[in-house]
Amino acid sequence: MSNILEVKNLTTHYFTAEGPAEAAGDVSFSVRKGEMLGLIGESGCGKSTVASSILRLIEYPGNIVSGEVVLDGKDLVSAKEKELEKIRWKDISVIPQSAMNSLNPVYTIGDQIIESILLHEDVTKKVALERTKSLLELVGIDKDRWKSYPHEFSGGMKQRVAIAMALSCNPKLIISDESTTGLDVLTQAQVMALMKDLQKRLDLSIIMISHDLPLVTSVCDRIAIMYAGKIVEWASTDDIVNDSRHPYSQGLLNATPDLLNPDKEVSSIPGTVPNLVNLPSGCRFKERCQYAMNRCSEESPALLEVKKDHHVACFLEEGDYRE
Ligand SMILES: Nc1ncnc2c1ncn2[C@@H]1O[C@H](COP(=O)(O)OP(=O)(O)OP(=O)(O)O)[C@@H](O)[C@H]1O
Ligand code: SF4
Ligand SMILES: [Mg+2]
Asked: What's the rounded mean pLDDT across residues 96-104?
């Protein structure tokens, strides 16, 4: 299967008063056509930074320092702003971190979807309205509800409207940034199931950003795990669930209760994500890692393919260190 997006050695810094914070450090991964890729990590690991870098929407004091973001063969890091304006929304759209709350309370949800279509496409208002009705039906909302205001919808329905909006110009790729956070567990699962259904029906490519690894394992085809600005493991969901190699991925899997397996022992990862301005030397995970050894303080592990399509950045994979 060919790739719709290739992120190659992407490095993004925020130039803070204390010094540069490397929120994305030499990040590489790809998204296949029709694939849902999970981008997972705790708060502050750089997930939204990667999303904004892909769209070149990094704002001051941030800057893309190096790397490429290749969409369908075209590098967006070196593209002109005019070209990017055409690509954003039409080719890549985003369901932002606070999508539910980003709807304007004074306009009907239909008017807001229509406006986004008219802003990006040369069609009549009538065509935009018909498309809006189809989009609402596609996300499981009665088409006549286009006349409703955001306050007349539940959180889950507003989330569906945000998905309809993201789909409004038939994008090739959707980036969903923690878009179900804030919803109750059942509604989260329903929205995830809807995203999966749309991905299959429309042959969409989706980057699903979340801090909740178990939540995305039911919908993602592959998963990239991010820690303190680095991709530490990237593999098929099956491998992440059944053969995860990085201690951080293993910690994330054990850190959340599993509704289908209530007997599962839950244990949080000790410690916190390091300050990205003052990163420790060597492996960024070493202060929280039960396997850390001398080498982990001296060198930074590279992301290596340890078996087909399974990449890991940990010295444990390079030698016979594990018991
Ligand atoms: N505008 C900014 N100015 C300075 N530093 C920033 C800025 N935005 C992000 N950062 C730094 O980049 C790090 C990564 O931020 P980012 O928002 O990408 O993380 P995230 O993984 O999306 O977290 P969350 O799960 O909380 O959304 C932050 O911890 C912070 O150190
Ligand atoms: S490289 Fe070392 S510190 Fe980092 S995850 Fe592997 S064992 Fe732990
Ligand atoms: Mg974020």
From this structure: 79
Domain boundary among 170, 191, 211: 170
Nearest ligand by distance to the CA of 290? 2
211 with 312, same domain: the answer is yes
Dist CA 27 CA 292 (whole Å): 22
Q: 246, 316, 317: which to mutate for ligand 2, most atoms within 8 A of CB? A: 316
Domain holding 158, by residue range, is: 99-170
Band (323; pLDDT cuts 50, 70, 90):
very low
Q: Check: CB of residue 21 under 8 Å from CB of residue 63.
A: no
Whether residue 306 sits in one domain with residue 201: yes
The predicted-structure confidence for 103-129, as pLDDT tens digits, reads as follows 999 999 999 999 999 998 999 999 999
One domain for residues 226 and 280: yes
pTM value is: 0.95
CATH value at residue 51:
3.40.50.300
DSSP type of residue 286: G
Which 8-state DSSP code applies to residue 256?
S
Residues 20 and 131 both lie in one domain: no
Q: Structure tokens of 36?
A: 């849902």
Q: What is the DSSP string of 19-88?
A: EEEEEEEEEEEEEETT-EEEEE--TTSSHHHHHHHHTT---TTEEEEEEEEEETTEESSSS-HHHHHHHB
Domain count, the chain: 2
- Rounded to whole angstroms, the Cα distance separating 199 from 32 reads 12
What is the best residue among 60, 210, 276 to mutate for testing ligand 1's pocket, by most ligand atoms within 8 Å of CB? 276
Find, among 8, 9, 18, the residue nearest to 61 by Cα. 18
Interatomic CA distance for residues 248 and 256, integer angstroms: 13
